[in-house]
Structure formats: C-alpha cells, structure tokens
Amino acid sequence: MRNTNSLFPVLNILILPTIGTLSAMYWFPDSVPGNAIYGFCRLSILAVPLLWLKFAEKYKFKRKPVSLKHILSGVGSGIVISIFIIAAYKWLGHTFADNAVISEKLSDIGVKSTGIFVLGFIYWVFLNSLLEEFVWRFFLIRSLGRMLPAFLTIPASALMFTLHHFFVLRFYLDLTSSLFWSGCIFFAGIIWAIHYRISKSVIPGFISHAIADAAIFYVGAKILGIC
After folding, report:
1. How many CB atoms lie within 10 A of CB 153?
2. What is the mean pLDDT of the chain?
3. Under a CB-based contact definition with an 8 Å cutoff, are residues 127 and 48 in contact?
C-alpha cells in the first residue's frame, strides 16, 4: 500500500488555486473580497508546502549546484515554447478570441493601466513562475511519488497544474480555445516536470517557465495596444 500521508497538502495545492481564480475572476472580480481570497489562496499554496516540509517531513533545504547543460536546456525549451505561443497568436489569434473582449475583461479584473500591467509582468515572470516550479514540480512531484507509481507522477502533476489555468483561460476564451490552450499548458507542465526530474532542480524549469510567461505578456501587450 502506498503512503497517503501527503494527501492533505496535495489536495490543498489542487483546490486552492482554483478557488482563488474563481474568486478573483468570476465570483468577486475587481473587489476587495475577490482580491483577498485570491491573495490568501496564493499565499497558502506556498505556505502549506513549506510548513509541511518543515514540520511533517523535517526536510532540510540544501543549495544544490545546477549544471550549465541543464540551465541551457531550460533556456532552449523556454524559447521553443515562446515561439509557439507568439506564432499561434499571430496566425491563429483571430480564431481564438476577440481582442476587444479580452481587453475589456482585463479591465474588469483590475488591469486598467500600463503600470499595473508592468507590475503584473514583474510578478508573474520573476516571482510566480518560481513559486509554481517549487509547488507544482518540486513539492507536488515529490508528494505524488508517495501515492502513485513513478511513471504517473509527471502527467498527474501536469494535469493538476492545468486545472486552475483552464478557468483563467475560460474567462477570456470560448470552450474550444480554452481546451486547446489548456492542452498546451499540460504539455508545458510535462516539459517543466521533466526538467525537474532530470536536473533535480527547479531552476531549469523556472527559466523555461519565465521565458514562456514573458511571451504570454508580450501577447497581452499586443492585445492591449501597449506595444
């Protein structure tokens, strides 16, 4: 029988991002309650793994060097993913969404100025991507390994990573487009999980993830007419 002791933090990681997303974008958009619930959920998905590692597992964090080969592989996969994102927007964007609708919905959730957009870029590219690699790759794959066969941990982590992103996409796009981009996010999650599995570090995945997020913000800037 596999160890299910990690079920509690895994369920928290699965549920809280979705609750935060629904609160900020669907239930209470651009409001104090929506932002408060979203902020609580964002903090919790970091706090729960950290507290679990410290008190339940007595885990000792150690700084591990990352080889240049693995860093470059992260750069390479990030560039490939970014090229795909920008190319898909350029060639297929008009079939996926109405720029005016997306711009209006961004305004509805508080993205109403270039300054807010830039702050969002800094947070999502440099901080959130690192947070997600720690939570969804390091902690989740480690925890799922106690409950699932090893070959299932990577696809399971990628599927869980995709769930709340689907609701983000559905806010802006129709169902077909949301499913398409959710599939892309799933495969990106697979790539970042493989980076972690091979390198034993979140840094290559973080680099790749940050580059991909930068491409997403580039597309967002084009939609908003910022660049």
Report:
1. 20
2. 90
3. no
